[in-house]
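Team,

Forwarding the record for the chain on the shared tracking sheet. I've put the sequence and predicted structure together so nobody has to dig through attachments.
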Amino acid sequence: MTANSSTYRFSENRSSDMVINQLFIDYHIRFINHLCANYGIDRETASDLCQDSFYTLTKKVRDGSYQPQKGVSMCTYLFAIGKRKACNWLREHGRMDVGDVDTLCSEWITENYEETEQEEAQKIANQLVGEAQESCRKILLLYYWKSLNMKEIAQKMNLKNDQNAKNKKSKCLRKFKLALMGRLKEAEIEWKSKDEKDE
């Protein structure tokens, strides 16, 4: 059973270590499965990344760099850490290419949908990515996965300037979002986004 987000809030009677320990108990298996299923990482590596992600979260909480934000749960924050570590691992091992851009949807789906809806939502998102133009897949990969700025993207994609790259990225995201909303509605899955999540 998935715990309510209030379980992972600090209080006078619940220290940060207690909260993170509870998060680990509730989510470490799901976290490992998420990395294996969505990033093609073997289970041993996923387990190592899981431990590393929880260590990073603990460190950020203790040194004060983690600050709870409205609409962003600690679990969401943890999965974001895991995504960065998984992407770094893939880059280091030469296993990232434009075809992997479909996993950009994976974290969002995991954060926003119950487990019973995740598989269908992921399938729909992957289909849309597969139908997208090559240029859209590439620009999303360069921006979200490889963290290139607009000037660098413009150079790699032979675009006129960084503003052209920014406009193209925005257009691709808008088109993808509208298509995804429509497909999810057809599948009777309610559209959800980070801004609409409960605390």
